[in-house]
Amino acid sequence: MLAITAAARESYAYLKGGKELIKQYRYMRGIFSDARAKLDAAPDAEGQRDILRALGEAALAEHVEWALMHRERPLENARF
């Protein structure tokens, strides 16, 4: 009975983690799409640099969230 409970809990945690990743990927897709549109509409190189800087900061913030999430949930099937 204990083994079944442990397997169910692990399966639930995996499913929950997948939903979190999907949410993060959709959020970042929106950010990158908006940045692409703004880059195309930017009048000069200064404006493009500002957009790329903001995009880089958003990507770094998302990476920090990813790292914190995986600190709690170690990667499985890692090949080193």
Q: H/E series, N to C?
A: HH
Q: Alpha-carbon distance between the termini? A: 35 Å
Question: What is the helical fraction, as a range of percent?
Answer: over 70%
Say how many strands there are. 0
Give the mean pLDDT. Answer: 81
SS field, number of helical segments: 2
Oligomeric state of the chains in view: single chain
Strand content: under 5%
What's the main sheet like?
Answer: none
The gross shape turns out to be: elongated
Structural class comes to: mainly alpha
**Radius of gyration computed on alpha carbons:** 19 Å
* Low-pLDDT runs: none
Topology, pairings included?
Elements: H1 2-41, H2 45-72
Question: What would you say about this model in short?
Answer:
The protein is mainly alpha-helical and 80 residues long. It contains two helices and no strands.
Tell me about this structure.
The protein has helices at 2-41, 45-72. The protein is elongated, with a radius of gyration of 19 Å. By secondary structure, the chain is mainly α. It contains 2 helices and no strands. Helices cover 85% and strands 0% of the residues. It has a domain at 19-72.
Record keyword descriptors for this entry:
80 residues; mainly alpha
